[in-house]
Amino acid sequence: MNKQRYLLDTCVCVYWLRGKYNVKDRINAVGMENCCISEVTVAELKYGEVYGKLKGGPKYRNQGLERFLDAINVLRVAPCFDFYANEKARLELAGTPAHDDFDLLIGCTAVTEELVMVTQNVKDFQNIQGIRIENWIEQ
Fold first, then answer.
1. CATH number, domain at 91?
2. How many whole angstroms separate alpha carbon 30 and alpha carbon 5?
3. Domain for residue 56, yes or no?
4. Domain hosting residue 120, numbered range
5. Total number of domains in the chain
6. What is the DSSP string of the chain?
7. Residue 1 is assigned to a structural domain of this protein
8. The whole model's pTM is what?
9. I need a labelling partner for 114 at 20 to 30 A (CA). Which of 3, 24, 87, 127 fits?
């Protein structure tokens, strides 16, 4: 039996790093080995760390960003570029353009790799053709 695999959105990773909303429990329940993130998410997490440091806010590093990145499978985005181009054009022509190219790349990666997209921001991904979405955030 194939075990379901998941692509975690950046917000889910931030909640894991901050110990919020039982995200660690959900990841432990499905197994870290069945969870992945996009290269785009790595860029967003690193940006958040630098931005927060420059603002004098809490640092992800204190909560294990590098340890998290070492523990999770990071997927390349290049394999989804053809699907991304088609989806971006389709959404534009349908009058429902994606408002964030990073989210579109992440969502297209989930579809291309046949992963369930895990996000709190369902509306940012719901128009991507063929995407499967779960919201693990318990507030």
1. 3.40.50.1010
2. 8
3. yes
4. 6-134
5. 1
6. -PPP-EEE-HHHHHHHHHT-TTHHHHHHHH-GGGEEEEHHHHHHHHHHHHHHHHHT---GGGGTHHHHHHHSEEEPSGGGHHHHHHHHHHHHHTT---S-HHHHHHHHHHHHTT-EEE-S-GGGTTTSTT--EE-----
7. no
8. 0.92
9. 24
